[in-house]
Design goal:
The protein contains 30 helices and 23 strands. About 50% of the residues are buried. The N terminus is likely disordered. A hairpin with a 2-residue loop joins strand 1 and strand 2. It is of the alpha/beta class.
Length: about 850
């Protein structure tokens, strides 16, 4: 622990807001020092040192040496423009990722001014009293002043995977200082709850000292980034080969000057080497993650963005995801003991300052208050001696409370679990034995409540002598049942239907009562013929039986975290791409095992969020469907952008290779090739990322992640448009060459600039004709296209730039030829899509 001095608390109410602000100003935010943000100048200098920019610089220098100062000036201007674009794009993606990180920053619950408040973790200060519960990440180094069944996972600091117990006892010796009651920033509470006083924050914590050793480590690349990196390496050799072959053939066959051919080779290498493809993908994934955050889905790992569009099965929990998670007590049985039931419900809950963090427990508190029970006085008269928190194995919570002359042991939990520990029941005539007939009647009443879609809790208690050993195993007195309503979310049924239309199978995995699970499943459209399995059913199943069950069963109830993990693993073994939702500590294994783990942002624990790939800001199942749609859009746009980018490269190589093979000069001047690359990069890196979804995208089956990115369809999508664009350029060039050689390059330049914009428009659509997708739907692409058209007009119609751009004026017939071939060479794809059936 750090050695910061911590003033003693003035009261159990924690710091005042004013004092907390003073300390925050004194100690600074509770966060680790971020990595150094690179300045724009530093990024600019790094971009200048990129190999492709150096290649372009070499071209400009050669122009200068050979006396072509106008061309050299043009190239240097292009270099500045390209580097500026890269800097802006890098800054834009960086800001998007930074904003995303800001959204996913953790919070902490502290006592301020005598009440519990949730604040950003970075606002925690030394002296704050922090409320710690199971599943929460500890925000700072602290010492426990109250602890109940408290255990911490310190593996982030020590590497030890076994949770260690902590208590609020004072240190017994200097050697033990800070260890028995010390908790540390970055570790996780795995069991129990407590209060702790913060002693160190930020860089002064144990975690801060370790973090200083790990700065500068970059996150691993995603599978798609790695695949594109490998593809780029392969394409580099193809591009370099073309950049050498074309000049050699131009010199040997077409008789072009050697100096001109050297410059063509350098320019062609600059334009055709796909060095920016991994950068484009990184930027698109980062911006896509930021767009997902706008739809309430916060991406923690970029690989999830790639996988969203491939999901075939979503395993969702019930409470808070399919339901509102706004519990209220709607029934008590027997009603004669309603007040007693509510008292036990309050006493068997984790209450801090008269409130609970758990929606179920908060519903009991509100019901007790509504029944005239003074909750504060009840808690004060029955202080906690010991507590045994709810867990998924026991399925109940027990609290031992001290009274003046004895101990009161109160329990709440699943009806079958609580009843198994009861030997008697409460009646109007006192305690009576809980015989088999009465036990069966209680279970039937619980099933009736559950069948109405209600969450059902049972309550029991017993009295023990002060100082006696507390036996929690049996001999409890059953008191009654409570039914709590948690209605389905308004959009849950529509979201389930949307999943099925998209070829995604939703299933429910819940720890709740089977009848409750089936009632909610029926209301949201998850009830497939009424078949349902419980955790006990799964316990006796072999691996093959479980896989068969997962293939056909939609609702799993009374499951444990181990059951949930087995279901997820079985689903994946069947070839599914699985998304799993979860919010608790014990959901972490299933979240980690899934292809995409989705944690709840409102009710989820820090442990669940750490294990997940995506965090839902509002815990709503509808947000999952939106995220899947956004993931499909992003991946589709990524394919469109890469297809366009590579089609331009292929078209350029073929457009310069064919003329030299037939003894005709290269159709573009070196400076024109460089300018063409400027427009290609702008489109590939920006405009396709803004493409809206095509109609019917969520009615298509999920993408198969086993298929390579560069599959047969992708190759055809590159080669066919490239052939059309190349044919347009060659037709315009060769037809003009044989009639007016001086205008041929300008005609080819115009055909290229217009044609590659027309091609981009056509590649916006894959299945539907462009007019159904919406010609004006992508305003960013239209703006880029307008810039390309304006550049063409200036390049041809303004005589003062002709020498710099190696252009001349065109006759009306030459304009018609260039524009006509550019249109015909690309828009034939629109005609083809209009006359053929749309692919499914």
């Amino acid at each position: 622990m750090g050695s910061e001095a911590v003033r003693p608390l003035d009261s159990a109410g924690g710091l005042s807001t004013q004092e907390a602000r003073r300390r925050l100003a004194q100690t600074g935010p509770n966060r680790l020092r971020p990595g150094r943000r690179e300045s724009i100048l530093r990024i600019f200098l790094e971009e200048i040192r990129e190999p492709m920019i150096l290649l372009l610089l070499a071209t400009g220098i050669l122009y200068s040496v050979w006396g072509e100062l106008t061309d050299a000036g043009t190239i240097f201007a292009v270099i500045l423009t390209l580097v500026a674009v890269e800097v802006v794009n890098g800054q834009r993606a960086g800001h998007a990722i930074a904003a995303l990180a800001k959204l996913s920053e953790p919070t902490a619950t502290v006592l301020r001014d005598g009440r519990t408040v949730a604040i950003p973790a970075e606002e925690v200060v030394p002296g704050d009293v922090v409320v710690l519960v199971a599943g929460q990440r500890i925000p700072a180094d602290a010492r426990l002043i109250e602890a109940h069944g408290f255990a911490v996972d310190e593996s982030t600091l020590t590497g030890e995977s076994v949770p260690v117990e902590r208590s609020a006892l004072p240190e017994s010796s200097p050697d033990d200082a800070g260890r028995r009651n010390g908790v540390f920033a970055g570790t996780m509470v795995t069991r129990g709850h407590g209060l702790a006083v913060v002693v160190s924050t930020g860089e002064r914590t144990e975690l801060g000292r370790i973090a200083q050793l790990t700065r500068g480590v970059k996150p691993p690349r995603t599978p798609l980034q790695l695949a594109m990196r490998e593809l780029s390496r392969y394409l580099v050799f193809v591009a370099l080969g073309s950049s050498v072959l074309v000049p050699l053939l131009g010199f040997a066959i077409a008789g072009e000057p050697l100096k001109e051919m050297v410059l063509v080779g350098l320019s062609l290498a600059f334009a055709t080497i796909p060095e920016e493809m991994p950068i484009i993908i990184t930027m698109v994934l980062g911006l896509g993650a930021f767009r997902l955050s706008k739809r309430r889905a916060i991406v923690r790992r970029l690989r999830a963005v790639e996988t969203l569009g491939a999901i075939t099965l979503i395993a969702t929990d019930k409470t808070g995801t399919l339901t509102e998670n706004e519990m209220r007590v709607v029934g008590l049985s027997p009603s004669d003991f309603g007040r007693r039931i509510l008292e036990i419900g309050v006493l068997a809950s984790d209450i801090v300052a008269g409130r609970s963090r758990d929606p179920l427990e908060e519903a009991l508190v509100q019901a007790a208050t509504g029944a005239g029970i003074d909750v504060g006085a009840l808690i004060a008269a029955n202080p906690v001696r010991d507590e045994f928190p709810f867990d998924d194995e026991r399925k109940l919570m027990t609290v031992v409370r001290e009274r003046e002359h004895d101990l009161r042991i109160v329990t709440k939990g699943a009806p079958e679990t609580v009843l198994a520990r009861c030997s008697s029941r409460r009646s109007v005539r006192g305690e009576r034995p809980l015989d088999a007939e009465r036990r069966s009647a209680v279970l039937q009443e619980a099933a009736r409540m559950a069948a109405e879609g209600h969450r059902v809790l049972a309550f029991a208690e017993k009295v023990a002598e002060t100082g006696s050993a507390v036996d929690l195993g049996s001999e409890l007195v059953f008191t009654g049942l409570a039914a709590l309503a948690d209605p389905p979310r308004a959009g849950a049924a529509a979201a389930i239907a949307a999943c099925r239309r998209a070829g995604i199978r939703p299933i429910m995995i819940t720890g709740d009562h089977p009848e409750t699970a089936m009632a909610i499943a029926s209301q949201v459209g998850l009830d497939d013929g009424g078949r349902m399995l419980t955790g006990r059913d799964l316990d006796v199943m072999s691996g093959d039986d479980l896989r068969a069950a997962v293939a056909g069963v939609t609702v799993f109830a009374r499951t444990t975290p181990a059951d949930k993990l087995r279901i997820v693993e079985a689903a994946r073994s069947l070839g599914n791409v699985v998304a799993v939702t979860g919010d608790g500590v014990n959901d972490a294994p299933a979240l980690a095992a899934a292809d995409i783990g989705i944690a709840m942002g409102e009710t989820g624990t820090d442990v669940a969020r750490e294990a997940a790939d995506i965090v839902l800001a509002d815990d709503d199942f509808t947000a999952i469907v939106h995220a899947v749609e956004e993931g499909r859009v992003l991946f589709a746009n990524l394919r469109k952008g890469v297809r366009y980018y590579l089609a331009c490269k292929v078209a350029l190589v073929s457009a310069v290779l064919v003329p030299v093979l037939i003894g005709v000069p290269v159709p573009f001047a070196p400076v024109q090739i460089i300018l063409m690359e400027l427009f290609m990069d702008l489109a590939a890196s920006a405009t396709f990322a803004a493409e809206p979804p095509e109609p019917g995208l969520m009615r298509l089956p999920p993408r198969d992640p086993r298929l390579p990115f560069m599959d047969r369809e992708m190759l055809a999508g590159i080669l066919v448009p490239a052939a059309g664009l190349s044919a347009a350029v060659l037709t315009s060039y060769l037809a003009t060459w044989y009639s007016d050689p001086s205008s041929a390059r300008t005609a080819a330049f115009v055909a290229w600039l217009l044609g590659h914009f027309f091609m981009a428009l056509n590649l916006r659509a894959e299945r539907e004709p462009l007019h159904r997708v919406g010609i004006v739907a992508n305003r960013l692409m239209l703006a880029w296209g307008a810039a390309a058209v304006a550049f063409v007009a200036v390049a041809v119609l303004v005589p003062s730039v002709h020498h710099a751009l190696r252009t001349v004026s065109l006759s009306p017939s030459q304009w018609a030829l260039a524009v006509g071939t550019a249109f015909a060479g690309t828009f034939w794809m629109e005609v083809w899509r209009s006359i053929r059936p749309a692919r499914s």
